[in-house]
Inverse folding.
């Protein structure tokens, strides 16, 4: 199986990439100095500081510290999160669930809405629907998230008072169990309509802020790819066979237009991850992005390293998926050559 | 092979005063400006002319494949004289070309006024088209088999169901599967355990039809070819696939828009032979669009010479090539190298094709014509009969000059 070989080969490279990335990031976090600041308080005596230094191995050379960290990671110990005052491994799943819920909501909507809008506009080139979609898409791609997010916040939370902030209502949160950490899923599992509605309601503004840009990029790409495909000779050849316009569009043009769009969708994923940082800060969403932003400011190496490790692995896997989908859509692409 | 057109009055298509204009920023381009000609049953009609003279636009008009807008259908008609009922043709498909064995259902329609649904029934079934570049006219992401089967699914649903041993009792989902009209849950419906064997029988029937169509074009190993993608095939092979696709439903008319221009000469010869052989077997009329005079001379029964959106001369192969009457045709002949042309004697027609934006009322060949008179400047010549089958649009009597 060529496909399986390709995936295996790509996965085999993964550890080396992770080692490379972790060395670079570990070194970079040390450029600003020792991360000891996160553990200190004003009342501590020099002796106590020294003791902490020894406890966390901060008195040793940096490369020894890296090896210690790597050893810890291999045994499932991702270090101590200073800003959460808890082991990273304990806090991480909760933060991850929060971010995943947000990213999945906006990402999936962006994917389907983007492809739909792009097809809709591309098939009606230079007519009213195309122009309207263009306005939506161009504004989506050019409005900065920190500005758009704050704008929505001012209008719907501060002025109109109809949108909530944060991730859930405190009483609603206490009313059900949270086995998965994805509040919408938890609400479904608990069978609580009130909790589900609350989760969706809280998700709304952050997801719109995060997904708007991605939707715009995908829609624009899909539209231009479709317009280009519709001008190809094989489209006329398909029409000459007697196919209905709907079939020409769906079976021939859209499928081929998806090929370049898939690449953009892969890139959009990075855009989405990056966006979670801004959006989570604006809406006080307790996810990975906000956690990471705080740890950068405070120099919390354990948290930071885990975040970087996670995102790089995720990114590589997403790219792998994109490549496989790509080769499936366009048979001229041969993998692993 | 040459047909005597004088007593072959059975036309398959009658183009009458066809006018197709294109709106551009600089004015209206009169791409096709009032052309009329007949296509007779079983003949090959060559449409020759320079680039931009309206050959392809004429060909595409048959199937309403014009880009509208910016194109505008200003006037005229293309009467299609439907030869027979398509499903009957399918049943006697093993011995086509014997019209006596069937009931004819003569039906005349104007192809230009048909609705979308009506013209779709004709496209690929009664009238088919082959395009210039076979490399571009096949969808790169679908297999050859998948693309060919679309023709059958579109036009031969009943036959497919019959071949699969299903009559009219075929369930809705299967019927929709066999006609490419899938609804949202059909993908799931046809895979239900009750439907799966039926579905595979339908697939088998379609595959049989596709294999038969491919083997008609003499491709080696048609069954294997069906699973290949277009990029895995050579140019000649791709054009064979296109021909198989075009002739799949035994069309009455085949529009061939420079089908060999993108191919090299040896492949070209084989493709032409193939088209001719299939055409003669099935009594298909071919409208062969080309700028290659020597090729047209080789394969066409009748030739229409086009210049700047008009037909300037039309006649049988012999009449056009042995006795050309229009200065443009004569110019084209002189520009044609042959074995007995002496070195350096090849002549080019001076000047260029005039712009077709809002052309004035005069002969369009005026600026390039050696026989031009004042009359040509003030009047637009119409096609006039020289013989019963030969017409020319020119005021000058160039018979003697061409005799030179």
């Amino acid at each position: 199986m060529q496909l399986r070989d390709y995936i295996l080969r790509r996965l085999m490279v993964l550890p080396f990439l992770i080692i490379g990335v972790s060395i670079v990031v570990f070194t970079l976090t040390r450029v600003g100095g020792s991360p000891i600041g996160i553990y200190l308080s004003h009342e501590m005596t020099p002796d106590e500081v020294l003791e902490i230094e020894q406890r966390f191995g901060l008195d040793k050379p940096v490369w020894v510290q890296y090896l210690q960290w790597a050893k810890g990671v291999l045994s499932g110990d991702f270090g101590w999160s200073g800003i959460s005052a808890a082991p990273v491994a304990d806090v991480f799943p909760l933060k991850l669930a929060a971010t995943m819920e947000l990213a999945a909501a906006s990402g999936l909507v962006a994917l389907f809405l983007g492809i739909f809008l792009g097809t809709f506009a591309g098939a009606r080139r230079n007519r009213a629907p195309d122009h309207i979609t263009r306005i939506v898409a161009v504004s989506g791609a050019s409005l900065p998230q920190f500005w758009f997010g704050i704008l929505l916040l001012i209008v719907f939370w501060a002025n109109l008072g109809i949108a909530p902030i944060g991730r859930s209502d405190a009483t609603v949160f206490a009313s059900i169990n949270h086995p998965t950490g994805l509040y919408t899923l938890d609400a479904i599992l608990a069978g609580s309509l009130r909790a589900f509605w609350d989760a969706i309601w809280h998700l709304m503004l952050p997801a719109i802020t995060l997904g708007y840009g991605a939707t715009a990029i995908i829609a624009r790409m899909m539209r231009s790819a479709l317009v280009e495909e519709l001008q190809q000779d094989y489209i006329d050849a398909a029409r000459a066979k007697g196919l209905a316009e709907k079939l020409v569009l769906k079976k021939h043009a859209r499928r081929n237009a998806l090929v370049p769009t898939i690449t953009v969708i892969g890139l959009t994923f990075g855009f989405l991850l990056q966006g979670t940082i801004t959006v989570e800060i604006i809406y006080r969403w307790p996810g990975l992005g906000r956690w990471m932003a705080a740890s950068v400011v405070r120099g919390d190496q354990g948290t930071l390293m885990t975040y970087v490790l996670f995102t790089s692995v995720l990114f590589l896997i997403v790219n792998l998926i994109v490549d496989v989908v790509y080769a499936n859509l366009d048979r001229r692409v041969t993998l692993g050559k | 092979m040459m047909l005597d057109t004088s007593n072959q009055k059975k036309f398959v298509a009658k183009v009458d005063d066809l006018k197709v204009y294109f709106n551009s920023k600089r004015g209206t381009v009169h791409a096709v400006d009032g052309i009329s000609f007949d296509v007779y049953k079983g003949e090959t009609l060559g449409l020759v002319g320079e680039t931009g003279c309206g050959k392809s636009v004429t060909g595409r008009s048959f199937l309403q494949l014009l880009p509208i807008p910016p194109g505008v259908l200003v006037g005229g008609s293309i009467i299609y004289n439907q030869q027979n009922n398509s499903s009957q043709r399918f049943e006697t498909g093993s011995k086509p070309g014997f019209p006596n064995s069937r009931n004819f259902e003569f039906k005349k329609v104007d192809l230009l006024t048909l609705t979308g649904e009506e013209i779709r029934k004709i496209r690929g079934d009664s009238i088919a088209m082959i395009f210039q570049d076979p490399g571009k006219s096949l969808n790169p992401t679908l297999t050859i088999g998948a693309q060919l089967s679309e023709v059958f699914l579109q036009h031969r649903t009943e036959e497919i169901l019959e071949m699969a041993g299903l009559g009219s009792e075929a369930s809705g989902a299967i019927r929709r599967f066999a006609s490419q009209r899938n609804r949202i849950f059909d993908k799931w419906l046809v895979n239900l355990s009750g439907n799966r064997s039926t579905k595979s029988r339908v697939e088998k029937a379609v595959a049989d039809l596709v294999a038969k169509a491919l083997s008609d074009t003499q491709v080696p190993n048609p069954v294997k070819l069906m699973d290949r993608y277009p990029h895995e095939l050579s140019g000649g092979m791709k054009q064979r696939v296109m021909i198989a696709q075009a002739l799949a439903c035994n069309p009455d008319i085949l529009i061939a828009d420079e089908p060999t221009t993108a191919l090299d000469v040896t492949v070209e010869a084989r493709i032409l032979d193939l088209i001719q052989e299939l055409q003669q077997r099935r009594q298909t009329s071919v409208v062969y669009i080309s700028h290659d005079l020597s090729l047209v001379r080789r394969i066409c029964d009748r030739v229409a010479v086009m210049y700047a959106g008009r037909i300037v001369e039309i006649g049988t192969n012999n009449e056009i090539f042995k006795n050309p009457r229009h200065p443009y045709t004569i110019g084209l002949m002189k520009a044609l190298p042959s074995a007995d042309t002496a070195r350096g004697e090849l002549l080019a027609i001076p000047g260029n094709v005039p712009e077709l934006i809002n052309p004035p009322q005069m002969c369009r060949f005026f600026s390039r014509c050696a026989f031009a008179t004042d009359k040509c400047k003030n009047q637009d010549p119409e096609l006039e009969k020289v013989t019963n089958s030969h017409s020319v649009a020119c005021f000058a009597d160039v018979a003697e000059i061409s005799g030179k």
